[in-house]
């Protein structure tokens, strides 16, 4: 295999696929990037068996076609350090030589025949979705997935696709995030699937890496497979595996009778939580939140007797109450909300609280977050 390509084009393609390469694996071949040059196109692929990404470019001059598996670590690092200019790549036997200006490297390859067969894009049931919207929905929910490997279904994001909407839900049993949007697409039936979160986190990278080659609509195409969910952006395809369910009936845990609605500036609340949490017990991570007409008090107490307090203005008229939260979970929710204003909806100290961002006009954005309370010390 022999080709020439501009350094920035080579680096852009490597940046799209390199993060899929596993740092540790029992299959050494997976530490490689598969490179294929044919028909005037250079294609790069990487997989960890659960996730795979393939990208390609025609901005390349192919002199000899071929395919190789090259260890990613040092190769990617070397390309990133090169000056701008033409990169010349040549294979001879089991070695490849790469040169750019006065810089040159030689590296061994691995047996390309050992590289696992990559997933094939099932180009049916393709749905066009605005890329920025889909990435936003993933960001709004992905922080809530479970890390408990004994409950694999909770380690993914549940997708509910209907003829006119898309809903993404994630939960770890302590918190829940649900992102819902209306969609203008052609879907004939309702479908539910649990998608591997690790794969979905690569969406921003494939969109960014191909944004100058996508159509003017800024869309990404989603393909619904039997065992995978695939995404195509420009010349890049991402495959994410589906997890076995069932996903819990999350609607059953969302309270319908929370009658204490507190409207608060998200920035004020986030900063207050951050300050108060400094003194919180590192084991319980508990902060105490008290509300009464027009004000919210936040406090925390450490195991060594240290204490912190803060107060912010809110819009609330109702009975006074106190509730305990895990400050880390609360911070995660606030950090992933774009709106400036949120409504904290509660019933009592023992019931789940709901957090809903709203627009400046008071309209809900489609995001709903649930946070289970912590039993307050002394109760």
Please tell me about this protein's structure.
- The protein has 379 residues and is an alpha+beta fold.
- It folds into 3 domains: 113 residues, DNA Polymerase III, subunit A, domain 2 (DNA Polymerase III, Chain A, domain 2, Roll), CATH 3.10.150; 117 residues, Roll (DNA Polymerase III, Chain A, domain 2); 118 residues, DNA Polymerase III, Chain A, domain 2.
- It contains 7 helices and 25 strands.
- The strands form 3 sheets. It has a 16-stranded antiparallel beta sheet that branches. Strands 5-1-7-8-9 form a 5-stranded antiparallel beta sheet. The chain has a 4-stranded antiparallel beta sheet with strand order 21-20-19-22.
- Helix 6 packs antiparallel against helix 7.
- It is elongated, with a radius of gyration of 25 Å.
- The termini are far apart.
List keywords for this structure.
five-stranded antiparallel sheet; DNA Polymerase III, Chain A, domain 2; 3 domains; alpha+beta; 42% strand; single chain; 379 residues
Question: TL;DR?
Answer:
This protein has 379 residues and is α+β, with helices and mostly antiparallel strands.
Described by strand count, sense and barrel closure, the largest sheet is: 16 strands, antiparallel
- Mean pLDDT across all amino acids: 94
> Whole-Å distance between the termini?
71 Å
Described by the principal axes of the CA atoms, the overall outline is elongated
């Amino acid at each position: 295999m022999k080709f020439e390509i501009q350094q920035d084009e080579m680096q852009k393609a490597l940046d799209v696929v390199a993060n899929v390469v596993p740092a540790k694996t029992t299959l050494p071949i997976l530490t490689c990037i598969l490179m294929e040059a044919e028909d005037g196109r250079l294609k790069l692929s990487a997989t960890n068996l659960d996730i795979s990404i393939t990208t390609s470019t025609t901005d390349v001059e192919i002199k000899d076609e071929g395919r190789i598996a090259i260890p990613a670590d040092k190769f990617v690092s070397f390309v990133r350090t090169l000056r701008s200019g033409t990169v010349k790549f040549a294979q001879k036997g089991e070695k490849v030589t790469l040169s750019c200006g006065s810089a040159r490297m030689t590296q061994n390859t691995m047996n390309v025949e050992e590289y696992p067969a990559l997933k094939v894009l099932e180009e049916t049931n393709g749905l066009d979705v605005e890329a920025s919207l889909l990435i936003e929905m993933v960001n709004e929910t992905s922080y809530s997935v479970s890390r408990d490997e004994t409950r694999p279904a909770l380690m993914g994001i549940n997708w509910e696709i209907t003829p006119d909407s898309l809903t993404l839900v994630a939960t770890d049993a302590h918190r829940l995030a649900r992102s819902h949007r209306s969609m203008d697409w052609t879907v004939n039936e309702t479908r539910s699937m649990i998608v591997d979160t690790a794969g979905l986190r690569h969406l921003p990278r494939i969109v960014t890496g191909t944004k100058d080659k996508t159509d003017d609509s800024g869309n990404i195409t989603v393909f619904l497979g039997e065992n995978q969910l695939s995404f195509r952006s420009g010349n890049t395809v991402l495959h994410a595996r589906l997890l076995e369910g069932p996903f819990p009936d999350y609607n059953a845990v969302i309270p319908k009778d929370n009658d204490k609605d507190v409207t608060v500036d998200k920035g004020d609340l986030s900063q207050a939580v951050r300050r108060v949490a400094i003194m919180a017990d590192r084991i319980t991570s508990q902060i105490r939140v008290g509300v009464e007409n027009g004000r919210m008090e936040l406090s925390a107490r450490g195991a060594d007797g240290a204490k912190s307090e803060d107060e912010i203005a809110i819009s609330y008229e109702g009975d006074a109450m106190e509730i305990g939260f895990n400050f880390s979970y609360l911070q995660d929710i606030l950090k992933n909300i774009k709106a400036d204003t949120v409504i904290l909806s509660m019933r009592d100290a023992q019931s789940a609280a709901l957090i809903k961002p709203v627009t400046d006009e008071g309209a809900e954005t489609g995001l709903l977050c649930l946070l289970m309370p912590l039993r307050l010390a002394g109760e």
